[in-house]
Amino acid sequence: MTRVKKTRKTGPLAPAKQPQNDWEKPKGKTVPPKTTQKTKGHKPGSRSNPVTGSPKGSAKTEANALNDPRHGSKKPITLIDPAQQHVQQVKQPAFDRKAALAELSALENDQRLEQLLDRVDAGETLSKAEAAYVEERTERFAQLADLLGIDLDDDDDFDDEDDDARD
């Protein structure tokens, strides 16, 4: 059988103790009531959570919130270095006149475009892909001519003036 340790508990069968009255207590050393000593230093957490004023009164807490030493400076700061702001300006690539002239001459010598324009002049209808090709190439030709300062309408006027001068 297992060993059962002795206990000081009386168990459920023993009579309950009666509370002692003050006059029945033994008269001996009396313990004086605890006195609160003067505290030295700040309470724990006072550095990160400064307590100012009394906790009562919402007006005081609002005023304290404005003067909270934990909050930093209200001075606005620039997030981007001023030296970097000037560098970030993107320069547009310089206009390459030689490349534009080469592309313009390539469009003028495009055999497929010439054939399609001849078919349009003859009155034939083009497929969607052919019409899109013609439209794209003619728009690009007009853009390049405009960039290079070439007027497309002036050629006809000079031809008419030359014909009138010869007559």
Automatic annotation (TrEMBL):
One of its GO terms (molecular function) is GTPase activator activity. One of its GO terms (biological process) is ribosome biogenesis. InterPro entries: YihI. Residues 1-78 are annotated as: Disordered. The keyword Plastid does not apply. Signal peptide: none annotated. Keywords: GTPase activation, Ribosome biogenesis. This is GTPase-activating protein. It comes from Pseudidiomarina gelatinasegens. The lineage of its organism: Bacteria, Pseudomonadati, Pseudomonadota, Gammaproteobacteria, Alteromonadales.
